[in-house]
Every structure is written in structure tokens, then in C-alpha cells.
Amino acid sequence: MTTLSPPRRENRLWLVVRDWRGLASAGYLAVLVALALLAPVVTAHEPNAQNFDAILAPAGTPGYLLGSDDLGRDVLSRLIHGAQASLLASFLAVGVALLIGIPLGLAAGYLGGIVDSAVMRVVDTLLSFPAIILAIAITAALQPSLVNSMISVGIVFAPSVARLMRAQVLAVKEETYVEAARSFGSRGRHLVLRHLVPNSIQPVLVQSSLLLAHALIAEASLSFLGLGVQPPDPSWGSMLARAYTFLYQAPLQMLVPGIAIAATALAFNVLGDVAQQALDPRRNR
């Protein structure tokens, strides 16, 4: 007589890798990060090196694969070096959002009462402002720079993280195993760290991958307006701002960083979508 054994649960990382979309997105991001880290080695020119004999050189010019800008700087070198600032800005903004939003959402969901009401009123107030306008206002108050602009973007993203974390905590703390833990004397920090946080954090982590795409676009927007990376340092947003003036003379200068921003944001979004499917227990057999 044969007995049926319970199905073996697949490793969830394998579920992400098995999906060709997740594999392609992860591969693209890995290559991009590697290029950004090795930028001084893989680029033929310094990002700020000027050559007035090659101003607005077209793509394919010897020594300038993607052409040069209005100051004779290599577009490809600035694109690769600019990836450092753009990726760093994205991770910094999302890190600030998680650092602020997770504790606030956890406190609101776990403590409830007046703490929940106070936190959620602050969250609702921040969410009532248009995100980019609020980010511009905070950046202007802190003084324009890459770090300050990303701190402002993180502050803007924090309310959505707090709301998601609060909703998850409210659902998890009513589960039977949490009630059983309470009956065995689990209280305070032990209950929060042992049961609430591990079982509430997964949707927040998936949301953070989606926020990376929004942070990348926010950095490009703020740098385009002159509130992010300051000249002459490169970033994809500052390259767009510089190339906009010469759109008709050298359209490729604006097209290249635009494609880089779109492709990277798409990779973050796809990776978040695949991770959400992998972490969803209803989709796992």
C-alpha cells in the first residue's frame, strides 16, 4: 500500500529564477551594477573629460561609440558613470522609506488606539500632497544635492510603506498562531520580532522593489530640474537635462539615458512582479 507524502515546497528563490522574466531582469540589473562598480576600468574616457575638437560628435565616431555632448564629453562614459549615481539614489531613497515606514506601520498596527490614529493622520496628510511637488519642496529646504533629494524622495515614499506594513500587521496579529503565542506568554518585543515582523514583511519587500523603479524616475526628474546631482557629475537625469537643449542637433544624447532609465525601471517592476508571484502561497503548489 502506497502512501501519499505531502508535496515538497519549492525554494522560492528558484521560483523567481525559473521565470524567464525574473531571470532576464536579474541578469540585466547584475550587469548594470557590475558596469557601475567597474566604471573607471571599462570606460575609455573620464566622465568629465572635455574634448573641444569632438563637440556633438555623432555615434560611431572613433573613440566615441555613442557620440559626445556639447562639451565634447563621451556619452557612453557618462552613461556608465551616471549609473552609479542613479542606482545609488534609488537604493538610498527606498532605504530611507523602509527605515521610516516599517517602524511607523508596525507601531500603528500593533499598538492601535491613539498611536494608530496619530500615525495614520500624518500618513494621510503626506499622501494628500502630489509626490513630486512634496519631494521638490523638501529638497529645496534641505539644499539641492543627490543625498538630500533622495532623502526627500524616501520621506515621500514612507507613507505608502507605513500603510502597507500597518495593514499586514493588523491581519497577522489576529491569526491563530499569534493568539497561541500570546497564550504561552509571548509579549512585547518577542511577539513582534518573532511573529509579527517575519510574517508581515514579505509584501513590503515586494513593494520595495517596485519603489526602486519610482525612485529611479524621481531621481531623474529632480536631476533634470537641477535639484539632484549637481554639475559636472553625471547621472541619467542630469544627462537628460543637458541633452534637452540640443535635442534637434543630437537626439541620440537624450535617447540613450532615456532608454537606460526606462529599461532599468522596467527591470525593477518585472522583478517585483515575479517576486510577488513567487511569495504568494496561493500560486505555489
Automatic annotation (TrEMBL):
It is a multi-pass membrane protein. The keyword Transport applies. Residues 83-272 form the ABC transmembrane type-1 domain. The chain crosses the membrane at residues 20-42, 87-111, 131-158, 250-275. It comes from the Bacteria. Its main location: membrane. Keywords: Cell membrane, Membrane, Transmembrane, Transmembrane helix, Transport. It is found in: Cell membrane. GO terms for biological process: transmembrane transport. It holds the Pfam family BPD_transp_1. One of its GO terms (cellular component) is plasma membrane. Belongs to the binding-protein-dependent transport system permease family. This is ABC transporter permease. It comes from Saccharopolyspora elongata.
